[in-house]
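Message: Study each token:
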Amino acid sequence: MRRNLILFFLITFFCIKAGAEQPSLIKSASEQEYRDALSHLKQMLPEVENKAVYSPLLRPFGLLDVVPTQLKSKDDKIAFINFNLGVMGSTLGLNKEDIALLPNSVLCNDESCIQKRITLAEKFLVDAEQALNQFAQSSEFFLVGQLSESVFRINHTFVSNSEAYTYRPSKIVGLIPSADFTHYSELTQSPELLRLIEESASLRKLMRASGIAAVVRSSNNTLNIIFNGVGDNHWGVIIGEKGLAIPSPGEFNHLGYDYDKVAAFHDNAFYYQTN
């Protein structure tokens, strides 16, 4: 019964967001991909009295931020991202009112708030200059995410204490995380992963100090430093070469999320908020 309700809501939600034409996700096989991923992720969360303690996993590129990497339609992707936020929030015991308020916790609309964020970003860029340059020049990293010293992400691998799961995109819409993975019960089972963990240690330490959710390489070789976010609501900075083009509100970033606020603060960096 509950699965039928979820499926009904999914179809309704997509039709409202994308119009009468059904988006590419609404096909029986891709529905099953999501259900399989959801079942796996529920098994990943140990039973606790208050599941809301897992809410930080909803942050950008966290374990519960399931992303359809192969969806071509920007609108379909955003609709799915926000639908997944609703499903995961419900899984964590949040009511619909709490879920609806989650974006407000990361959105910032007055100038003083934006300037505080830019000041924080400027400090991080100075402190992490060497580590960010190493990330940018490496061909082995496209994403580093962090939650704590022992819980973090490198590319498509999620590490928790002494074990790790490396995910492969689901076949139809490319879900990450998905139900297709390799589990390492001990990190020593993957010498390559151990090396990447060591090489990213300095960057992850600096990210933790500034509360940064993820550093992501974009398709045009800029770096997207995501400080925080939920669903398609992110805030962070984009850094690149001097003369970096500054987008206007209403344009969208490499993830397909619409820029809401944009403010240049260097000739190679700008602050942004998506909404």
Remarks:
- Residues 108-274 form one domain.
